[in-house]
Amino acid sequence: MARSNAVTRAVDITRAILVLRGQKVLLDAELAALDGVTTARLNQQVRRNRKRFPADFFFELTPPGVRQLEDAFCNIKLGRPSHTAAFTEHGAIQDAAPR
What we know:
Blueprint: H1 2-16, E1 18-20, E2 23-27, H2 28-35, H3 39-48, E3 58-61, H4 63-72, E4 84-88, H5 89-96
Antiparallel strand pairs: 1-2, 2-4, 3-4
Helix pairs in contact: 2-3
């Protein structure tokens, strides 16, 4: 049964990957869900550990950028346009690293 969960989780991750600014990213809400924490908690930890997340690990979307994202992908409704972070592959791996 564990293998089935791993496959399902891989499919979930694959569906959550977006290409923004020419990079494959996971939005903060998706990464938080994969980690089993709230988006607020994930973003709080990133703010507290800012040195671990340089510019090539994540970037924040501006309100117009969030609206464009929501317009481009009808299934995405973020509802918090001023605090949406996009984690690159390196940032997502860093998030999963042991603390």
